[in-house]
Amino acid sequence: MFLTISTTGIPERPATDLGFLLHKHPDKAQAFSTSYGTAHVVYPEASAERCTAALLLEVDPVALVRRGKGKGRGGAPDQALAQYVNDRPYAASSLLAVALGNVFSSALKGQCSARPELAGQTLPLRIEVAALPARGGADLVRKLFEPLGWTVTADPIALDERFPEWGDSRYVRLVLEGEQRLADALRHLYVLLPVLDDAKHYWVSPDEVDKLLRVGEGWLAAHPEHKLITSRYLSRRWSLTREAMERIELARLAAADDSEVEELDNAVDEDADTEERPVPLAVQRREAIIEALRAAGASRVLDLGCGQGQLVRELLKDPRFTEIVGVDVSMRALTLAARRLRIERMGERQAERVRLMQGSLAYTDKRLKGYDAAVLSEVIEHLDLPRLPALEYAVFGAARPATVLVTTPNVEYNVRWESLPAGHVRHGDHRFEWTREEFRTWAGSVAERHGYGVEFVPVGPDDPEVGPPTQMAVFTLAAPAPATPPATASASVSAPATPPATASAFAPASVSASASAPATEEKVA
To answer: In 3D, which of 388, 335, 384 has the Cα closest to residue 358?
Structure first.
């Protein structure tokens, strides 16, 4: 693949300033390794009057086959032998766009460390691409580049000059001429080369939306063909295209309103939002948990019964938590958690800190061993009382983290909820709700059996008569005493009401049980 960028100079601004902008010295021939071959940068001419930089991309066909998707040209199944016989070494495509982004990354960002003032200047540029695949023909090439201020020459290339009756190929020789900032010119090429090819050599993931909007900032939203550009750049993945179009429209509205996108996106009726609203109990609960984890010095944390990942998301905001594992029995809840956390769009370092996995707290699990802390937030009340000993041994006897945090509703506080009928629990899936004394009795016996100390922390407003809405026990491992699984529930545990005759498998606070089965006695392996 071959592309040249040329400019002319005047005495006040020599053409060789192009070397400063590209961060490549005109006197040197440089080579850069890419995933699919080698990119060479040379200057066929470099004088004060005229300077040309050439990018030659040598594609390694073996690397292309090994790293490619094995399905046609960059994912388009238009030829049965496309991964072996194709135009990739010659025709401009997403391979060349990626090479442009890697080799001229500073220029693409509009940065010039040696001569910062050059980055904002427009230059008389001439860009030539020897062979450009154009699905849509020369007319589409002009529709894409002319609105950006380019004078476009798109000469169709004949299939075979010896046989003119065969007609033209789908390739054109492209020449762009115009007064442009170099950064803008490179951004146009970066987006529109793969758009004209209508194929990419790599899988299009959700972060491609961010990349498109970043590189297209300042020109894409106003382009008359922005819908076509967006769809083709994102390989016609409708969900990504829809997201990109919504964000482009928001940027366009913000520009028309002369405001920031964030201001427009978060606009609310000030008259309707003047009252100071109380902090939701769920938020107070997460804040109390995170404060306790910080006080314990925990860095590797288990969120047992993570539900849709609300606590995991808050933990990710604090870099002191280096490893966060969310565990839930419900695959639906884990799917929603992954979507809420946007794991697919996370950076590599951030993604390394979080893991979601399926598991039941009714059974021991060797994957849960070795962590600094475990959190059971609004979990135990979703189990039938006969199942609590199994959870107790799985967490305190087998996994044995240094710190365990358990939160559960305080049933005494229920009288303060005006909307809660007398005698009812807070959630339809709660199998019980304990008083402060009942919770302290259970927690104390668990701590004694497994070698933990325990303290109690109120969460939410601590009412002098009925206590806080949520009660939290902070268990701290005192000594590595061996523990044996209890055969039956502790006699000191008392329920406020007779447990229901049915029991369901463990479900997190955010996922209600949809069916019940006859109660059976479980044994911990």
So the answer is: 335
Phi–psi pair at 403, nearest 5 degrees: -130, 140
CA distances from 96 to 2, 3, 169, 189, 498 (A): 9, 9, 20, 9, 70
- Distance in angstroms (rounded) separating the CA atoms of residues 244 and 288: 37
- Report the alpha-carbon distance of residue 302 to residue 365 in Å, rounded: 12
Mean pLDDT in each 10-residue stretch from start to end of the chain (525 residues)? Answer: 92 91 91 85 94 90 60 42 67 85 90 87 93 90 94 91 88 93 94 88 79 89 91 87 84 60 48 58 93 95 93 94 94 89 84 92 92 95 92 95 96 79 75 94 96 94 91 87 51 38 35 33 34
* pTM strictly above 0.70: no
Could you give the CA distance from residue 58 to residue 37 in angstroms, rounded to a whole number? 6
Q: Which runs of consecutive H residues, i.e. helices, occur in 216-266?
A: 226-233, 238-256, 261-265
Distance between CA atoms of 188 and 101, rounded to whole angstroms?
12
Residues linked to residue 34 through DSSP beta bridges, in sequence order: 37
Contact 506, 383 (CB under 8 A): yes
d(CA 201, CA 241): 18
What's the CA gap between 351 and 328, in Å, rounded? 19
